Automatic annotation (TrEMBL):
This is DUF3857 domain-containing protein. It comes from the Bacteria. Residues 72-192 form the DUF3857 domain. Gene3D superfamilies: 2.60.120.1130, 2.60.40.3140, 3.10.620.30. InterPro entries: DUF3857. Residues 1-19 form the signal peptide. Keywords: Signal. It comes from Neolewinella aquimaris.
Amino acid sequence: MKVTRLLFLLLVVGIHPLAAQYEKGLEFGRVSKEDRQLTTVPGDSTASAYVLYDHLDLAYRYNDTDGPSLFETHHRRVKLLKPASFDLANVSLHYDRDHQSIDNLRAVIHLPDGGTIQLRDTDFVSDRDSDGRATVKFTFPRVVAGAIIEYTYSRSQESILSPTVYYFQESIPVRWAEYTALIPPYYQYMSLANPAQYHLKEAKLSLAEFGPSFGVVTYGSRVNGIEHSELRWVMKDLAAFERQPYTNNAEDYIPRIRLQLQKVQYPGEGPRPIFSDWEETVNSLHDRQDFGRYYRKKGNYAKLWKAAEDAIAAAGSDREKIEAAYRFVIDRLSWNGNYGVLASASPNAVLDDGTGNSADLNICLLALLNEAGITAHPLLVSLRNSGAPIEVYPVVNQFDHLMVYTELGGQPFLLDANDPDRPAGLPRVAALNHRGWVADPDRPRWIDIDVPAARRIVMQEISVTEDGTASVALRSRLESYFAFSARSELRNAKTPAEAPLAAEIIARFPEAEVTMPGTVAASDVPTAPLDYSLKLRIPSAATAVNDYLYVQPLLLSVLDDELDDVERRLYPIDFEFPWEQRFIVNIRVPEGYVLDETPPALKVRAEDGSMEGTYATNVMVDGAVTLIFNVSLTRTFYPADQYTGLRDMYRRIIELQNSPLVFRREH
């Protein structure tokens, strides 16, 4: 058994020589004179802070009442080099107070000119919320450039299923990052770590005490200890992680250790697999009170159904029933700001309370749809920037959010109740993480999270005076996510300048002022496109120079400069949703001016046809100039190695949206 298990460890982590530096770890509270006097990060003089040491240690505890639990110790030391880093001296440690605890917290600050200040117990403040989450907060005193902050604490956790994910690289440079683990032989974990170049990767078998004496000689006893798997991963001299715009799930590209319990086997017992398959996982979920039973057992939602029945029964088609159920939930229940895949209460209780987490609201919707005869299932997703979903193993705790999957005309129709401005069929943007798992007991499956393309058609009438002042009458039709976003902005705007389109134009042209507040078509409903109009005066949209007028015809941006500001793309480009934007601009200038210069007509198209752009101008009989600019995007994910081919297209589109038309006075 020894040989087999050690061979397994070697295959997982490999063996490398031990490093001399930090071999035994750093002693808390003692720093070297060199570190106190350090003023810059080697190789990066611009860095505002430097992680000198970060170590997470995983161990296990056992008691006869509760069984095994995780015990993690975190030791962190950070050099604050510039005032921009002083926010790091405000520390918040989060945990789930129902299943976790934080103890043994110590913190000190080492001053650059000598001396160390230790925080007192009264400096640690605990906050709790109503959803089971808790936070310990503390602030280091006398923070100055050159100070070193240091703290250590332990986190206990009842579940041994998923230890804390450890990230080696950070937004600031790291000198030394280390993860160690001492795992009892009864628990076999799989590593979901992403590839990395480790300074050290070690694995060996070590004796340690754990758990009860099973009376089996090969496993030893409490006195002599049993053979644990002792693992060590180390990375050093890491540059700051470089984030790039339009990157989703950035943490997937940071070197990390992520362990997931795969199998448990105690002496004298057969193996108990933690992972079986998705079929067993979905059955287990539907047996849970806070998942399947809440929307499948009528006693849990009878009161909810009674309140909604008349509105749903009055609907005719399946589409109308879905809309009625969706509208009932978003009108009667509010989202409390928390995500979840498990409900916090029954649908009846959620109705009484009037609020709930994302699972509460969507489980209420599931109950109504199924009772109305509409086949619907839970749809579990990881939120954007929570990591790409793992489809090979049934890892349920990777999911953050529960939505509803149903079909219309044989096509998926995704529901995500929480906002009166967002119609059925449009999940919240945070949930658009490409893939989701349908918890259908008969056919659990992964699906693409596809949504309708958002469209924005903007018509601009621009009149320019002799001195270059531009008066703009703007009419727009917004669909899908553009309409939803605009309705939300309208609801929250306190002034006309904060309203849809106006705020975007003023951000680009700060001197712009709204001369007629935005108006919405009288027949506006959330399920329809939003027709929106407003008028502005924009002095900086045109410039008069001698006999020339330079007019900026495109007041809204299609793409921003962040898409073309790097020569090498490190991570995939990930747009939130497909879209199409079309601008029709009519420009009138004072009599006597003629169009002198304009960008040439253009039609560009990505190799796979997923992105297209067209640009054309035309002089009308009455002297007005018409410009049509159209850009569409049907694909939302592009691997990093395709960036070079797309970059020229991005740059051309950005150049066109920033290019003025030049008019010349005729003599």
